[in-house]
Amino acid sequence: MRDGREEEIRNIVGELLEDYKDDRTINQIELFDQPDTEVIVDILDKMLKIVFPGFFREKTYRFYNLNSRLTVLLEDVMFNLNKQIAIALRQLPENQNANEDEMAEKAEKITLEFFKKIPLIREYTETDVQAAFDGDPAAFNRNEIILSYPGLYTITINRIAHELFKLSVPLIPRIMTEHAHSQTGIDIHPGATIGKYFFMDHGTGIVVGETTIIGDNVKVYQGVTIGALSTRGGQKLKGVKRHPTIEDNVTIYSGASVLGGETVIGRNSVIGSNAFITSSIAPETRVSIKNQELNYKTGKNKKEASGIEITDLEQDESWFYII
Amino acid sequence: MRDGREEEIRNIVGELLEDYKDDRTINQIELFDQPDTEVIVDILDKMLKIVFPGFFREKTYRFYNLNSRLTVLLEDVMFNLNKQIAIALRQLPENQNANEDEMAEKAEKITLEFFKKIPLIREYTETDVQAAFDGDPAAFNRNEIILSYPGLYTITINRIAHELFKLSVPLIPRIMTEHAHSQTGIDIHPGATIGKYFFMDHGTGIVVGETTIIGDNVKVYQGVTIGALSTRGGQKLKGVKRHPTIEDNVTIYSGASVLGGETVIGRNSVIGSNAFITSSIAPETRVSIKNQELNYKTGKNKKEASGIEITDLEQDESWFYII
Amino acid sequence: MRDGREEEIRNIVGELLEDYKDDRTINQIELFDQPDTEVIVDILDKMLKIVFPGFFREKTYRFYNLNSRLTVLLEDVMFNLNKQIAIALRQLPENQNANEDEMAEKAEKITLEFFKKIPLIREYTETDVQAAFDGDPAAFNRNEIILSYPGLYTITINRIAHELFKLSVPLIPRIMTEHAHSQTGIDIHPGATIGKYFFMDHGTGIVVGETTIIGDNVKVYQGVTIGALSTRGGQKLKGVKRHPTIEDNVTIYSGASVLGGETVIGRNSVIGSNAFITSSIAPETRVSIKNQELNYKTGKNKKEASGIEITDLEQDESWFYII
What we know:
homotrimer, alpha/beta, serine acetyltransferase, domain 1, UDP N-Acetylglucosamine Acyltransferase, domain 1, 5-stranded parallel β-sheet
């Protein structure tokens, strides 16, 4: 900006500072009262190294002894997670007036409880790796799955976030699962309960709602929604079971929707692609949509080598194309 | 690489340098003539701190006084945005021969115009936070929405990019919205006009086209396309209204497509999941697809506890599963 | 953490170290035996600069002479890719007992072979830019496409990864394409063979399987699956052609699925939105789904200006909404 503009800039800044004075939700200038997303993402990265030691190399700590390396890593995560939990707990209405010591005490208890769950998380994750290998002919080996599969990445973060959710930590679990969502396009609420041997292939577009319960050996493909039937009640529905129960050994193929808090998909069932299910399905059932009726036409649909289409197609109402 | 390979490497480098000499689109070695994506993403991160002061902590500038902190932040963004705009303006055919002073003058005017819009952007964004809270029973509180909801993140970036789009800045608005797209799977063109209280839940797979007009209080769920009906004209359609108008208080549920530049969804209407709409809908209408016809079969579809399926299912043409 | 907790922390760490002693897939403490995802992503970023010189500015190397700049960049990528390939090759069962020299020799050969393919990759990518410009009326110019289009980003990374895949490099190609998948929501297996002038618009949710073959001038929109029909055989299907062949000049509109290893979409055909195709389509054919049957109701579906819906809608079984 050149010099002549200085006053104009000062005016704009002044107006904005004025604008911040309104008491609005998007203000909130108590700077150090919010959990820090960057710190939480860093905690997650380190938690993945704890769950999969060796796969995710720790460059910061150059110990050749695994014990020392892990001890340092664990203490780092513990320290930072504890701090973030203490900040997040303030978001609970009952903690607004608690004193510092009480809050620190609560945060520590939760942090330690959470760390005791890591062997359990690892036990479940081991089964998820196996399920991906058994389920995907394109899997080269287990290492490829751990190093690159977005489904495994997401379910692992979900298992971590779910333990914090069960310990009633506000905000942090959702920040964790939304981080996974942004990396993979898979949106599983940290409240969802998910059994062993869970496999999501491709994954993009999968949505699993807060009160979903999923058994063991369940496979879910891209674009599947396990969601709520809207009763359009918004905040009035908080805490109500709004999402389905999926029993053991169920497979849900791509694009299917399974909806509603009273919907139960019975064990050993298979839901076909694009099916839209809003009531319970008995065990051992395979559900698919009836064959689509298709129109076929022989067209004069040509393109030049340059990629430019010749638009000699007659316009025809029954032909719907999306750009 | 070992020493013996040196000549081979020199040859490969030589061939590549030769290959760069062709006059092709993907070359373009005028190094400093392109907007810089990294700088634009940094500007966006800082703009989010300006829109939500306090939520996004500014670590670089350690001022305890909000005024100084914001002034420094605003001047930083202004300086860098101004520079990027000056570079981007060169992409307009009419500016190819403009002199440096003219361009600097134009860029400054646009930058200052844009900054005057920030209070307006903040006013809209405040309503988006409210809409997310009212619309989602899983929302713990407004802080959770601001800190973690991908829909809010995307609409905020879109509101910023849309103001630059209206000021006819090339490239930068699209770089901004594609950054949001990569973070959230929500693809809203910066040209789309969107009213207050806009809420997108889950979001992954939402597409909103360039010439879309959306009213107030509109809710859109995952996988919704608000798109064009292809008349397959490519660049010949530039500037034509190709995308729908969505009036106030409309809800569009997951997977629905609303298509075509003459399609108007009248106020207070609801479009059900997976509906495919290519013509206008009267106000106060609820549209849903007729119940799918489903096939049900009792199968012998079992899995062992290990997750390996026993493949004793008869092959059956009517069963379509996607891997 | 306060002092009193120290013993508790020591216990937790002790239990975790105990837990790592099990011989499980998710352990694998041979720290330096895995390819490094971070290094591979860095290689990809630099490869994009090699494919599009000038567009992706190289800040690290400040040379004003293009030759020196590119030489340094190429040698950097060569050195690091070579190292990662040497590590990855160990994952092939036949290389488990190879000596260091043999492995280094193999890795070097592959690296040099790969670099010889860069002009070919650039030739294909040039056509992809052209196809995006011709196909999208919202494209401002070719620079916008190169700087911001997720479809172009993904196909470019795929063309790079596919060359490494053809050279039988394990793990690295998939790490590359999964990185693109995480950035764009487009999941193309590095094994897929894709012709010139390939254009993906919007892109989120596109899945293209390992054994797919795609001709020249093909356009694919958001949410399209080019996938397998499950015969549920898991690892037993490795290497079998499980995914379709798409011939030249085919367009596949949003949400369509084309499935099965014997399915061939003949040249110049068009597949309409949401079509579900599991058998071959003759050349010159346009396929679309029959018009959906829709229910229309005039509702009393109102919202207050605040965004809160008045829930006076009668509950109605035939109305399915997903939250």
